[in-house]
Specification:
The protein is α/β, with parallel strands linked by helices. 31% of the residues lie in helices and 16% in strands. It contains 3 helices and 5 strands; from the N terminus they run βαβββαβα. The protein has a 5-stranded parallel beta sheet with strand order 3-2-1-4-5, sandwiched between helices. Helix 2 runs parallel beside helix 3.
């Protein structure tokens, strides 16, 4: 299996890369050109590709022979709602559409956030049937990405 991991240099992404390499999968790690790569291992099977999803900058080589995408990249902080939306919603949907057209495409795994569900009341944990109630622009953007991906399937 050959997989693309977006946000591969982040906390979740770097641990995912480690696990995929340990299972002998070929991994394409997508990172921004200015990203800190210190958490990415220097191991066989790892190919690092630079790009910026929010700008539509994903080199064609990043999707070459990829059958699975783990999309862990996200804007965690931004000054304006439009920035969260551009990165967390629009770039996610664009990546999905581009990947889904490829003949090797099998699986797209979107890494969302508990922030999309919103906080749980002190007296009970949130359940799957509870309606989402995000309290931040970050959470609202992750929820919009979830809804958008559901609509595309």
């Amino acid at each position: 299996m050959r997989v693309l991991v977006t946000g591969a240099n982040g906390f979740v992404g770097s641990h995912l890369v480690d696990e995929l390499l340990a299972r002998d999968h070929g991994v394409v790690a997508l990172v921004r050109p200015t990203a800190d790569r210190s958490h990415l291992p220097d191991r066989p099977g790892l190919e690092v590709v630079e790009g910026r999803l929010a700008r539509g900058d994903l080199p064609e080589a990043a999707l070459e022979d990829v059958d699975t995408v783990f999309h862990a990249a996200a804007a965690l902080a931004a000054r304006r709602w439009e920035d969260f939306r551009r990165v967390n919603v629009e770039a996610t949907l664009a990546l999905y559409r581009r990947f889904a057209r490829r003949p090797t495409a099998r699986r797209f795994v979107f890494v969302s956030s508990l922030a999309a569900a919103g906080p749980a009341p002190a007296e009970a944990p949130r359940g799957e049937a509870d309606p989402p109630a995000p309290t931040s622009d970050y959470g609202r953007s992750k929820l919009q990405a979830e809804v958008g991906l559901d609509a595309l399937e």
